[in-house]
Structures are given as structure tokens and as C-alpha cells.
TrEMBL record:
Start and end residues of each Cyclic nucleotide-binding domain: 322-432
Record field: transmembrane: 15-34, 46-66, 87-108, 218-236
Protein known as: Cyclic nucleotide-binding domain-containing protein
Assembly description: Interacts (via N-terminus) with DMI1 (via c-terminus). The Nod factor has no effect on this interaction, implying that the complex is maintained after activation.
Signal peptide interval: none
Taxonomic path: Eukaryota, Viridiplantae, Streptophyta, Embryophyta, Tracheophyta
The keyword Lipid metabolism is assigned to this record: no
Family, as annotated: Belongs to the cyclic nucleotide-gated cation channel (TC 1.A.1.5) family.
Primary role: Cyclic nucleotide-gated channel involved in the establishment of both rhizobial and mycorrhizal associations. Required for full activation of nuclear-localized Ca(2+) oscillations by Nod and Myc factors. Simultaneous activation of the K(+)-permeable channel DMI1 and the Ca(2+) channel CNGC15 can give rise to sustained Ca(2+) oscillations. May function during fertilization in both female and male gametophytic Ca(2+) signaling.
Length: 572
């Protein structure tokens, strides 16, 4: 755009009007017209120029105010940023109009009074008494003249122009200026009374005005009536629009709440369920004030929407330890797809075994995350999630799979809100898109960080250590039992050998003929005895081992699914 062309166009069109509206024309009129006129013998010139003050002051300003008002509304859509400022602006315009009509009424009242004096003076000039009325006597400069003093003692001009007695002259709507001593009061009282007169008659459309037959007075009253009707309607309409803009969302929320109440009564929901619905509607209103954030963001350009999401979500996302390991570009991609999520107290966000549709990053509030490891008897693990924690990590493992199917993973935990919770949610489709577009999400560094902060992996690790410890203790007991059984078998064998040695001495004394046959038979009997004792010990140990295994046997703990690292890139 060419600044010189704009300046030339402005000088040719609006410059003169703006200059006339800016210059102190009322002061110029007073100093250069009224003051010199006071020295002229003809007082009528002075009184007629008083009526020009209002026109000279406000006519050029009207040519500036109304076009400027239309331009502002056409450009920005409203004249003020807030509703109360817009209502105050329209009220000031209405008060300005009241000030104009009040000032005009006072000037016309003075003119009407002077007109009455002039008429009575002309009638008195034709009278026979002396001294007769002279128009110069109506001028303030002739107050010290002896002729005027003599005239005041015999004249009836002043008494005939009394506003309380309209026998000779009817003042009509201008009588209040003299009956209430407005003309003789000080400036402050005079100004506020005239302002009140204009405001009262504009608001009542001139219904309180009692006019005379003077045509100028009737036209002025008609102007007040029409202007009051137009301005008051304009004021009420604009103020209603501005004030309704502040309560429109509140009224919309009240209507929606009433519809919800009627629907719950129609469906005969239980009282506790109705109370939960009311609490959610109330909490959503307090958190959002009826503003649909998603629709506002969707209407903005991509770059602006990305910057807003970064401002709103980046600091909160960085509080999640897993996301703190990511670079700026990856965080921007995640922040761009986060949506707000609100949950009231005692709300089950997800149950164990249900498909996981979104990851939740907590901003405020507390959640209880518990698991029974697929319904295993006697197993229960529970933790409390606070601001900075997240849940639904099964979805991240599913998204990192290169060959993941359309079925969402099943939740391994039950998540329930302990208080009112405000969070950001990352939907499954958005997470899958981010993981497919940004290969850095597949890095082993992020994988290890995810395992470290994942409550599912922590639970699996704790269970694995518990099972390993129990197996270790079981093996230790078995080894101790085996050692004790080995000592017992050695003791029995020693007793058998000692007994055999004593029997051999007796048999040796009885004779040497049967020695070889008896030794062979006893050796076979001893071997069978040892084998039988070992078989009994093994059988007894097997029964005990079976009973111990039955009592300590635990179902197999499945390790959480791991992503395929075949497409991993180097750690960033």
C-alpha cells in the first residue's frame, strides 16, 4: 500500500470534517462572536448567536462519530472487546444526546424569555406613559443608566413575562427554566438540571412535555419524541446484545442441564447415577465455561494451531518422564494431537480386559490403577497416579509394532479416578500415525525409558522377582532335605556293614565248609536291602516334592509384549 496515496485520499475526503470536529469551535464562537456582540447596541444579535453554539459544536462531530462507528463495527465486528465496555459506550452516546437536548432547551428558554420581553416592550412603546420601553433597556450594558432605572419603576414588561403567570405569554415547555430558578442558579446546578431534563424527556419520548401553540416549540418537542424513540431503542437493543453475550453460554448451559434432568427422569436412572451425571456436567462447565476448544483450534491455521498446542501442552507433556526423553519435533507432533479430557470422581476410565483406545496424561487429580493379573486368585496390585503420570501404555506397545492389527490391545489394569481429573488424551489413531511417521520413537533409548516408567513392566518385574525368590527358596529346601536323606542312608549302610561283620565271625566258628555259599547268599540279600531302602527314600522324596510343587506352583507370568527392534535406528 502506498502511504502517499492514502494521505492524498484522506486530505480530499475526511480531513476537513475531522479538522472541524477537532477545533474548539464553541470557544471560538464565544470569544469572537458573542463578546463583540455584547458591545453592539442591538441585543437581538447576541441572543440569536447563542443558538448557533450547539450546532457549531456537534454537527461536525456527528459526521465523524456515526461513520466511524459503522467502520469499527464493519472491521472488527464489535465496538468494544468486553460486553460491559460496549454497554457503557452505548450509554455514553445516549447521555451525550441528553446533554445536547438539555443544552438546546436551556438556550431556547433564554430566547423565549427574550422574545417575551421584546413583544411586551413593543406594546409598551405605543403606550402613553413616560418613559416608554426602549429595546436598549433589555441590554445588560444599560443597567446603570438613569433612564432605565426610571423605566423599571413604571414598566410592566417584567411582570407580564412571568413564567408562573401565562396570561400574557405562554412559555410551554420552557417554563421550568424560570419556575425552578434554573436561569439564576450557578453553573453546576444549571448543567445537571439541563442534563436531567434531556435524559428524562428522551427516556419518556417527550410524553411529559406540555407545549404551547408556538410552532418552534412544537417542532422541538417532536424532535425530542422521535430522537428519544430511536436512541432509546438503539440503546436497549445494543445493551441487550452486549449483556446477553456475557450470559449466552450460561443460559445455554442451563438449558442443557435442564434437558439432561428431564432425560434422566424419563429414563428413570437411579439416584446415584443421576448425581454422577450432574457432577460431571457441573465440573465440565467450571473447567471450560462452555467453550468448545477443539472447534476453535480446528478453525485456526496449522502453524498457529501448533504454536498454541505447544504453549498449552508442552510444559505438561515434559513432566511425563517418558516424553522428557524425546526431541522437540517429536514432542510437537504429539502435542498437536492431544485433546483435553475431563473425568469426575469415582469414574472408571478403563477396566481390565477392555480395549485401550487412548493414552491419558494427567494434569490435575489422582487416579487409582489396579490389576489382578488376568483374574489370578490371590493377586492384587494397586498404585496411585498423580500429575505427571500416564496410563494406557499398552497402546504405545501396540503402536510400535510394525505389523500391528486393527484390534486395539486389551488393558492389563483398571483405572479409576479418585478425584476430579483433568488430563490430555492421545487417541490410538493419532499415536499410530506419530509412531509411523517418526522412526525415532522406535529407538532403544525410548524403549528402555518406557519400560522403566511403565507400571505394567514394573508389576511384571516385581512378580518375576517374587517367583524367582520362591523357586530359589524351594530349591534350597530340597537341597537341604536331600543332604539330610543322604546322611541317613550312609548311617543305615554303616549299620548293615557292622551287622554283617558280626554274623561272619559266628559263621566262621561253625565251619568252613559252608562259607562260600553263605557269603554269596548274604551279599545278594544285602544288595537287595540297599536298593529297597533307596527306592523307599526316593519314593518318599518324590511324594514330598510333588506336594511341595503343588503348594508352590504359580501360573505362568506372561512378559509384556516387546516391540520389534529390527527397524530400530540408532539412539538419539
Amino acid at each position: 500500500m502506498d502511504p502517499s496515496a492514502i494521505a492524498k485520499r484522506y486530505l480530499k475526503t475526511d480531513f476537513m470534517v475531522d479538522l472541524a470536529a477537532t477545533l474548539p469551535l464553541p470557544q471560538i464562537v464565544i470569544w469572537f462572536i458573542i463578546n463583540p456582540a455584547m458591545k453592539i447596541p442591538t441585543a437581538a444579535h447576541t441572543n440569536h448567536t447563542l443558538s448557533l453554539i450547539v450546532l457549531v459544536q456537534y454537527v461536525p462531530r456527528f459526521f465523524v462519530i456515526f461513520p466511524l462507528h459503522r467502520r469499527i463495527i464493519k472491521t472488527s465486528g464489535s465496538i468494544a472487546k468486553t460486553a460491559w465496555a460496549g454497554a457503557a459506550y452505548n450509554l455514553l452516546l445516549y447521555i451525550l444526546a441528553s446533554h445536547i437536548f438539555g443544552a438546546s432547551w436551556y438556550v431556547l428558554s433564554i430566547q423565549r424569555q427574550h422574545q417575551c420581553w421584546s413583544l411586551q416592550c413593543r406594546e409598551e412603546m405605543n403606550a402613553t406613559h413616560s418613559p416608554s420601553c426602549n429595546p436598549l433597556f433589555l441590554d445588560c450594558n444599560s443597567m446603570d443608566k438613569p433612564e432605565r432605572r426610571s423605566w423599571l419603576n413604571v414598566t410592566k414588561v417584567l411582570s407580564s413575562c412571568d413564567a408562573q403567570n401565562d396570561y400574557y405569554f405562554q412559555f410551554g415547555i420552557f417554563s421550568d427554566a424560570f419556575t425552578n430558578e434554573v436561569a439564576s442558579s450557578n453553573f453546576i446546578e444549571k448543567y445537571f438540571y439541563c442534563l436531567w431534563w434531556g435524559l428524562r424527556n428522551l427516556s419518556s419520548y417527550g410524553q411529559n412535555l406540555v407545549t404551547s401553540t408556538f410552532s418552534g416549540e412544537i417542532l422541538f418537542s417532536m424532535l425530542i419524541c422521535i430522537a428519544g424513540l430511536v436512541l432509546f431503542s438503539h440503546l436497549i437493543g445494543n445493551m441487550q446484545n452486549y449483556l446477553q453475550s456475557t450470559t449466552a453460554r450460561l443460559e445455554e448451559w442451563r438449558v442443557k442441564r435442564r434437558d439432561t434432568e428431564e432425560w434422566m427422569r424419563h429414563r428413570q436412572l437411579p439416584p446415584e447415577l443421576q448425581e454422577r451425571v450432574r457432577r460431571f456436567v457441573q465440573y465440565k462447565w467450571l473447567a471450560t465455561r462452555g467453550v468448545d476448544e477443539e472447534s476453535i483450534l480446528r478453525a485456526l491455521p496449522l502453524d498457529l494451531r501448533r504454536q498454541i498446542q505447544r504453549h498449552l501442552c508442552l510444559a505438561l507433556v515434559r513432566r511425563v518422564p517418558f516424553f522428557a526423553q524425546m526431541d522437540q519435533q517429536l514432542l510437537d507432533a504429539i502435542c498437536e494431537r492431544l485433546v483435553s479430557s475431563l473425568n469426575t470422581k469415582d469414574t472408571y476410565i478403563i477396566r481390565e480386559g477392555d480395549p485401550v483406545n487412548e493414552m491419558l496424561f494427567i494434569i490435575r487429580g489422582q487416579l487409582e490403577s489396579s490389576t489382578t493379573d488376568g483374574g489370578r486368585l490371590g493377586f492384587f496390585n494397586s498404585i496411585t497416579l498423580r500429575a505427571g503420570d500416564f496410563c494406557g501404555e499398552e497402546l504405545l506397545t501396540w503402536a510400535l509394532m510394525p505389523t500391528s492389527n486393527l484390534n486395539h490391545p486389551l488393558s492389563t489394569r483398571t483405572v479409576k479416578s479418585l478425584t476430579e481429573v483433568e488430563a490430555f488424551a492421545l487417541r490410538a489413531e493419532d499415536l499410530k500415525f506419530v509412531s509411523s511417521q517418526f522412526k525415532r520413537l522406535h529407538s532403544k533409548k525410548l524403549q528402555h525409558a518406557f519400560r522403566y516408567y511403565s507400571h505394567q513392566w514394573r508389576t511384571w518385574g516385581a512378580c518375576f522377582l517374587q517367583v524367582a525368590w520362591r523357586r530359589y527358596m524351594k530349591r534350597k529346601k530340597e537341597m537341604e532335605l536331600a543332604r539330610q536323606e543322604g546322611l541317613y542312608d550312609a548311617h543305615v549302610l554303616d549299620q548293615e556293614l557292622n551287622y554283617r561283620d558280626g554274623s561272619g565271625a559266628d559263621y566262621q566258628n561253625s565251619g568252613a565248609d559252608n562259607l562260600s555259599g553263605e557269603n554269596a547268599h548274604n551279599a545278594q540279600h544285602f544288595g537287595a536291602t540297599v536298593l529297597a531302602s533307596k527306592f523307599a527314600a526316593n519314593t518318599r522324596r518324590g511324594i514330598q516334592h510333588k506336594s511341595d510343587t503343588t503348594s508352590l506352583q504359580m501360573p505362568k507370568l506372561f512378559k509384556p509384549e516387546e516391540p520389534d527392534f529390527s527397524s530400530d535406528t540408532e539412539d538419539s
